[in-house]
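Complex record, two chains
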Amino acid sequence: MIVTRALGKSFGKRGVLRAIDLHIGRGRITGLVGPNGAGKTTLLKLVLGLARPDTGEVIVDGHRVGPAPAYRAAIGYMPQIARFPAHLTGRELLETLVALRGATVEPDLSLAEDFALGDALDRSLGTLSGGTRQKINAVLAFAFRPNTLLLDEPTAGLDPLASRILKDRMLTERVRGCTVLVTSHVLPELEELADDVVFLADGEAKWHGPVGQLKKHTGQPTLERAVAQLLAGGALLAVA
Amino acid sequence: MTVALRLVRPALREAVRGRWLIGLAAALALAGDLLIRFGGGGDTTLVSLLDVALIVTPLAALVVGTMQVHNAREVTELLLAQPVTRGNLFAGLYLGTALPLAAALTIGLLAPFVWHGLLIGPLGLRLLALGGVTALLTLVGTALAFAIALRVDDRVRALGIALALWLGAAVLWDGVVLLLALLFGERAIEVPLLVALALNPLDLARVLLLLGTDAAALFGYTGAVVQHTMGTAAGHAALITALALWLALPLCFAAKTFNKKDF
């Protein structure tokens, strides 16, 4: 579960997020949508402690996000651009993460098997295609039995089969009780996955609620059309 | 600290497989070999090699350090998402950059003396001192590079600042000091000269290595002042302390920046 209270963040003079109050439940997949530059990635980074909030706080499974790093042990993060060290292999990168976490953890490589990554894990990351790197990015995020998953455009660059495998895994993690927060520009895909939607625009969460309710509220048949309606309308909507 | 050290091995692997680290060491070794062949392997060779080290080491450390911070940006984000403190991660990233580079520069510099059999002999101790100072200068240069690159997100600007710093310290500084000495030559300028010395880690390194040797002619003005005012032993201690400060202050500054930075 992720709770944000009056969360605000600005970079220089540009206010990215203003007083965001969210309650993102566990065992659900929450889609984070909004126009470019709405602060979706910034919100994920604030949850991870990669950026520090100007105001307010973030609480992940009861732990207030601060300098103490232990809470991140249960978070799996898939960053948007998977740019890894060119001359290391995926397995070496994974081993580095294992070493950082204390050698006792045994990483879960089932997603690598599902992707049929095979020897791609043992090739230099610089020689891999963007799609294969993105698969490794996913493997790293799911490797440590997370209770919280923060996925930034997870299916970008994946072929349809790999994309389906990743989405199936997200659904499995949801059943396990994971809190899954996903940003995506591919709204039909999000419609297939998400229970709830958070719509960020102008630094505010203009909508937060179940996908069905959003469609009803906007009178649109699909999530894509409903979000387009929110974008075009610009009117402030009540947060459910 | 052990957490930080776990980042050094993958960083070393990355650098070695990227080949530039080995190329740098090989180029230095080749330069050293030529200097020994044509310079005879005596004191003059050592002084020439010192000049090479004082040019190449800070340049390599500043350039590699700033580029590394920016190139590792995405990996840094991935690592920051793990349950590790920022302090540990900073130490790991710094050591992962500085230690392989210091090793490559020191080995590249000293290797030709090993295969020419000069390490055991009258030059031995001074060669080891040169190796140690090279390693220390690498740590200083990398710390400065981290301090710059963590502050300046634009990679071209960061590299420009680093290069300007190198140009100032390695090339322009001597000329400026000499000019000031000439202009104010009739007054007592010991104290301003000592201040000028402390402000340039490359000067500190040079004076440290030449203090108390016969290479008095190549001493430079500031070195003579140190020997005159402090004597050899106290001079060494003061110089090493000043160099240590040149490592500690930028490193603290960089660590503080890293600690507060939004990624």
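Note: Chain A touches chain B through 34 residues (CB under 8 Å).
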